[in-house]
Design a protein that fits this description.
82% of the residues lie in helices and 0% in strands. It has one domain: MetI-like fold. The termini are close together.
Length: 268
């Protein structure tokens, strides 16, 4: 079998990939600067230096760190809950056709339930507190993780499972050496898409009913029509998410792809 072609990713060994990524980000900043110059109205679209000045002022006062930390904690908590619940349910439905037939309509309902409805209901039922905020975000993401992991469970190689049974591998060893490596690409995909969705939902949750966090600050700046402040907090948290993407999620995706390449490049 012909090995799957390898693709370059950043951060990695390729200096060209790193340079391309950096130039792409600089191109985005140039595009933003050009739009602000064309509009010529800082009250509508401030230029990058004006936004950076607000960002620096918020950082010096300590407000930026406080609100980003609050949002990041909610993101981590909701992400962990959604990944655990979605993975467990997805594996169960993927390996149990009968359960999947009975619960597939439920999955469809939760996939299509508007996030705003879930957030409002959690606030009404649980209260305007951290539990409601994290629960609302986790519920919205769990169904997406479930669908991805269900497909991963269906794609498990029965030959490897039979081999593990023949060699009487203990359950922990079977999970570590047989099941998890096959599920790694699906876990990586769920994590990457999940993080991108969850932090946006957390901002909505904070916008509607919290007294801290990036979403709360965006709400306050929106009421005062301070567009530079809105962009400053948005830019700061996007930078945090980019760092997580580059330092954690992309290495995990490369590891999953490497395992898949070794499988594809093995003997037919």
């Amino acid at each position: 079998m012909t090995p799957a072609p390898k693709t370059a990713s950043f951060p990695g060994a390729s200096a060209r990939a790193a340079l391309t990524y950096t130039l792409s980000l600089l191109g985005f900043v140039a595009f933003w600067w050009a739009l602000s110059a064309l509009r010529a109205d800082p009250r509508v679209l401030p230029a990058p230096p004006e936004v950076l000045a607000v960002l620096a002022d918020e950082a010096r006062s300590g407000r930026l760190c406080h609100h980003i930390s609050a949002t990041l904690l909610r993101v981590v908590a909701a992400f962990a809950l959604a990944m655990v619940a979605g993975t467990v349910l997805g594996l169960w439905l993927g390996r149990s056709p009968r359960a999947d037939r009975w619960l597939d309509p439920w999955v469809t309902i939760f996939l299509n339930l508007p996030a705003l409805v879930v957030i409002v209901l959690c606030y009404l039922w649980i209260g305007l507190n951290e539990t409601a905020a994290i629960t609302a975000v986790a519920i919205n993401k769990t169904a997406l993780v479930l669908v991805t992991m269900r497909e991963g469970a269906r794609a498990l190689n029965p030959g490897l499972t039979d081999m593990a049974q023949v060699f009487a591998m203990p359950p922990t060893a079977r999970l570590r050496h047989v099941i998890l490596p096959q599920l790694a690409p699906f876990l990586a995909a769920s994590a990457r898409t999940g993080l991108a969705i969850i932090w946006k939902l957390v901002l909505v949750v904070e916008f509607l009913g919290r007294s801290s966090g990036v979403g709360f600050q965006i709400h306050m700046r929106f009421q005062l029509f301070e567009i530079a402040g809105v962009l400053a907090y948005a830019l700061a948290f996007v930078a945090v998410m980019l760092a997580i993407e580059l330092c954690l999620l992309r290495p995990m995706t490369r590891a999953a792809a490497a395992w898949r390449e070794r499988q594809d490049g093995g003997p037919a």
